[in-house]
Amino acid sequence: MTLQEDYDTLLQKNKKAIIYQMIQAQLGWDFETYMPSKGGQQRSMQFATLAADIHKLMTDPTIGELLNSIKNDTNYYSLTEAQKRNLFLIEKEYNKQTKIPADLVKEIAKHQVVAIETWKKAKAEKNYELFKPELKKALDLQKQRAHYLDPNKHPYDVLLDIYEPNMTSAMITDLFNELKEGLVPLIKKIRSAPNQPDTSFLSRNCPTPIQEKLAIDLSNVVHYDLDRGRIDTTEHPFTTGYYQDVRITTHYYENEFDNALFSTMHEAGHAIYEQNLDEEFMYQPLGQASSLGIHESQSRFFENIIGRSPEFWEYYLPRFKELTGDIFEDIDNEKFLHAINHVKPSKIRVTADEVTYSLHVIIRFEIERDLSEGKVTVDELPLIWNQKYKEYLGVDIEDDSEGVMQDTHWAAGLFGYFPTYALGNIYNAHQFHVIRKELPNYDELVRTGNLKPILEWLTKKVHKPASLYDPADLMQQITNEPINTKYFIEYCIKKYSQLYGF
Amino acid sequence: MTLQEDYDTLLQKNKKAIIYQMIQAQLGWDFETYMPSKGGQQRSMQFATLAADIHKLMTDPTIGELLNSIKNDTNYYSLTEAQKRNLFLIEKEYNKQTKIPADLVKEIAKHQVVAIETWKKAKAEKNYELFKPELKKALDLQKQRAHYLDPNKHPYDVLLDIYEPNMTSAMITDLFNELKEGLVPLIKKIRSAPNQPDTSFLSRNCPTPIQEKLAIDLSNVVHYDLDRGRIDTTEHPFTTGYYQDVRITTHYYENEFDNALFSTMHEAGHAIYEQNLDEEFMYQPLGQASSLGIHESQSRFFENIIGRSPEFWEYYLPRFKELTGDIFEDIDNEKFLHAINHVKPSKIRVTADEVTYSLHVIIRFEIERDLSEGKVTVDELPLIWNQKYKEYLGVDIEDDSEGVMQDTHWAAGLFGYFPTYALGNIYNAHQFHVIRKELPNYDELVRTGNLKPILEWLTKKVHKPASLYDPADLMQQITNEPINTKYFIEYCIKKYSQLYGF
């Protein structure tokens, strides 16, 4: 076969795996939304069959042979950069899939089920001791996995790379230390500012049908294309799908309209990323989103940078009031904006505000890193967790269910995943800094609800390049400087000093 | 490998294909219900990939080798009847899949798309000439397909066997001739009876939310398990799924409440069949429904035999009135029952009543049969169609869109499919005859809404045996006599002479 034929064969094989993953995602969506309550066992069987076949497709020895043949071809230099990137990504994934012994893969899958079940029980009973052995084992299995993937790298760096390619523990430590230094004093200032918001109107009853209309209207405003998407409800909101069919979910609480409103903006941000990938690279490795952190940068761009900005509400509050009838007619712009930007250190990550959120993530990162390096043990976790919450957020944790056991991630073996949440904020504040330079009328665009040019900028700079670069390189391309936290901290200081008047 | 190992390997291979078919059905359900409008192209790609893989699984030469090895094993006699039946069904399917050249399979698939598109256009334009060449080709391709499947049998018998195993053109001709002889004069009597129903209340406005409640309530009454099913809406109602997850759809028309009501009963009947298959034979060939005709016997059992009976409405009308508020409070039992059993010869099959329906099917069967045998040509179809409608139903067809082009089946290449619709009526009237003998309190059970014993009878006699027998043999097992039309004709005469008073 010629070089081109080898390349095409390889891409075709990869495409098939991607199609199966799309099918898997579709079945997963149905599982979370409309599947009958007793359909689980049958669905598990479908998932297991697909997973086994995807694994088989991805570990097909022909992939290794084709990669070798291509790399040794005298015409290799004639490939485009995009083609080389595809080959790099295929090889990386192939190594990831083939280097881990099948027995370990099975053990991890089996233990995940047990650990999540135990975590649920332990959390309900506020009994960390029950969860501890399973957490220990989950960590141990992930360390083994990391060792197989790359015995020469530190295990935590190997795990980080799965979720945020090429990002290291050392880089994140530096970024997060800067963030802490900037945010901890800012939060103290905010908390002691005299100008605290009145948030009472947020709990006024807002019927679900009105909230549904709001969700659709907001989707249209931010150009989340509902002809290629849809909004359903699940307990925990999520986004799933690819390009022509990207669906989001939300959850309507009648006495917390802001919950669905911002979760819709957040998930729409994720969906917009997937909907605006480059058609040219569809179903290719480089046509997949760059990383979880970059994904989060897009969701939080729409949720926070746009969605909680004074400019946006200058445009949207009248429309919001029109859609909600007389419920909020007495609320003015200033009052609304301050309430939706209420900063309040709390124990729970998922409901945290824009400023304190990163600290929740930093705590988890520091613990994960130190656990992986053996500097702390699973036994000490509750103590360390509670100390850090006191130190960074000034919050007292009363029991481990609202402390170290609040998230499912560790039970699921997801070590290295948490940092991506805060990286999203760092990335998008930096994108925001550049976009304002490159679109000098940015504020005016938002104030008039004309988000199209902003979407086009994000599409050109972030969505279309997709996986052409690792996240740090992509950010360098966009911003012309290395990733840093300066812009996020500056953004927070400017925004919140105005809101809280200090 | 031992005989048992060979057998297990074979069943395991087959199970995988069944799981993929379940996934295919799930994606099909989503396609019809919730898929975003622009998700079609991506979904097609998923369908094509799955279809190719299912075909590969089903034509795997190992299947042929395993079948041979098992048949030549000296211990073959030690297999159970059920195991032998599985082997028979696997071999039959394997032959069906492998005997047709890949080129013909592709040509049929390709032509189907063209023919359906052309049919839609021709139907909209009332232009049969446009559709004619595609119809000719569709028929020709199916004849070729039949020839490859079995060159020694008449092509139409080969096609019939796909939808109704082992049923022949000669058998159906006899049954349908009897049916015609019984029904044509009956319809004349009904039409000339002085006691015609007042159907005007059927078009009273009945809001969708009320109809939705009715659909759920009726599902519960007939024991369609909504923990393993659900009801959504599509233009054309259908049932899809298997055992733990069997979903139905309906369509709510606010001025035609009876439409959704009886379509729900109909589809619930299909769903009940799938939900009550034998757990022992799950994911095996013999754990699949017996045939389309037997399937239709179950849907029409719930729609007509129960759902349009005086006994059922004696029980359900008070409940119906409770759920519909004051909309129908002035309608008494007799008036209601007569209206929902209104017999009126019409041009359109899908909206036909219980008595005239079979004649619509018989017309299509006679045309298909004569086409396959070369006794009529595609050029003559409109003329023959219109003559038969006049002769059997006394109806004048004004244009071919409401005549020979009304159904999509022929465009889709489905020759041999139509007869199963009328066979369903013949089968279930016969089941009804036996069930009343074996459950002497049948009428009382229906009158009190206690359908459980009836469901159990159907489950034992029809659902659980599933594909253990071909339909004619299954009916023989249930009724102890060969299939005949006597019971359906008697049932119609008794019911309608009472309703129309002759």
Short recap of the structure:
The first copy, chain A, is mostly helical and 502 residues long.
Give the helix/strand layout.
Two copies of one chain form a homodimer.
Chain A: H1 3-33, H2 40-58, H3 61-71, H4 81-99, H5 102-125, H6 128-149, H7 155-163, H8 169-192, H9 208-221, E1 231-233, E2 239-242, E3 245-250, H10 257-275, H11 292-306, H12 310-323, H13 333-340, H14 357-372, H15 381-393, H16 419-438, H17 442-447, H18 452-463, H19 471-479, H20 486-500
Parallel strand pairs in A: 1-3
Antiparallel strand pairs in A: 2-3
Helix pairs in contact in A: 1-2, 1-3, 5-6, 6-7, 8-14, 8-20, 9-10, 10-11, 11-16, 12-13, 14-15, 14-16, 16-20
Round the Cα radius of gyration of chain A to an integer and report it. Answer: 23 Å
The helix content of chain A is 55-70%
How much strand content do the residues of chain A show? under 5%
Oligomer: homodimer
Count all strands of chain A and give the number.
3
Interface with most residues: A-B, 34 and 34 residues
Q: Please state the structural category of chain A.
A: mainly alpha
Mean of the pLDDT scores of chain A? Answer: 96
